[in-house]
Amino acid sequence: MKNRLKQILAQGKPAIGSWIGFSDPYAVEMMADIGFDWLLIDMEHFPMSKETLRTVLMACKGSASVPVVRVPINSRDYTQAALDLGAQGVMAPMIDSAKDALRAVEFCRYPPNGRRGFGPVRASRYLRDMEEYRREANGEIALFVQIETPEAVQNAPEIFGSAGVDGVFIGNGDLASFMNHGRAGSEEVQQVVNRLIEMARSVSMPTGLPVWSAEECEAYVRRGACLLTVGSDLGFLANGARADLTNVRRFLETAKRTTSEP
């Protein structure tokens, strides 16, 4: 059950992913087949039950994209369910302290590293690889925690030092909201993001954030970020539809003017 995402990060290379909010198997399977290194399945802000998550993870099966689930809250219930259903990683939101981070570790790891209950039915290929899973899960499951509040920024050194955390994902949108800016790209928020990336880099902690263009991705990689998502399934659909509709309307307007000219 080797985790390709952890291997990429261990090599110091950027791991490029994208967000999954759709639960239709066609849409998920298409995204999984595009070639992203990892996919971040969002249970926090999309209407996704555990049963729905099972379908989403099944649609990812066989692809090279590592499925990571952002659970709705940092809880044993959701974390254990995501991992038992076959997720190869978990992202815990709203981690404000080392205590929060260590709770996430506890939920993700089997004893003696944590207190995850044992019952990986789908994750062990329906019990076929049970012993292999038991032996390797603690080392292969990826745990990422999110820094997205001023409290988390203040406690970042302790969060980065939490044993069992494999990476930090900066929630710059929520961070901007808590800082009363409302814009992730504002100068003050950007200064905090840059400081967090530098801090993580100094302790060799993989870190990253969502980006929305190739140029933005390159800029963050140059700064030392390596855990990145580019766009989302919802964004790709909406942006593609808007662009095509705009082009068609522009063409029709041009054609109308041309045919009406004397």
Protein model, in words:
By secondary structure, the protein is of the alpha/beta class. The chain has a single domain, classed as Phosphoenolpyruvate-binding domains (TIM Barrel, Alpha-Beta Barrel). Helix content is 49%, strand content 15%. The protein contains twelve helices and nine strands. A nine-stranded parallel sheet has the order 7-6-5-4-3-2-1-9-8. Strand 3, helix 4 and strand 4 form a beta-alpha-beta unit. Helix 2 packs across helix 3 and helix 4 runs parallel beside helix 5. It is globular, with a radius of gyration of 20 Å. It starts with a helix and ends with a helix. 42% of the residues are buried. The model has no long low-confidence stretch (mean pLDDT 95).
Note the overall shape.
globular
Helical amount among residues, as a percent range? 40-55%
**Helix vs. strand class:** alpha/beta
Distance between the termini: 71 Å
Number of DSSP helical runs? 12
CATH class: Alpha Beta
Output mean pLDDT.
95
Name its key features.
globular; single chain; 9 strands; 12 helices; TIM Barrel; nine-stranded parallel β-sheet; alpha/beta; 262 residues
Q: Concise description?
A:
The chain has helices at residues 4-10, 25-32, 50-60, 76-84, 98-108, 130-140, 150-154, 156-160, 172-178, 187-202, 214-223, 233-260; strands at residues 15-20, 38-42, 66-70, 89-92, 142-147, 167-170, 207-208, 210-211, 227-232. It is an alpha/beta fold. A nine-stranded parallel sheet has the order 7-6-5-4-3-2-1-9-8.
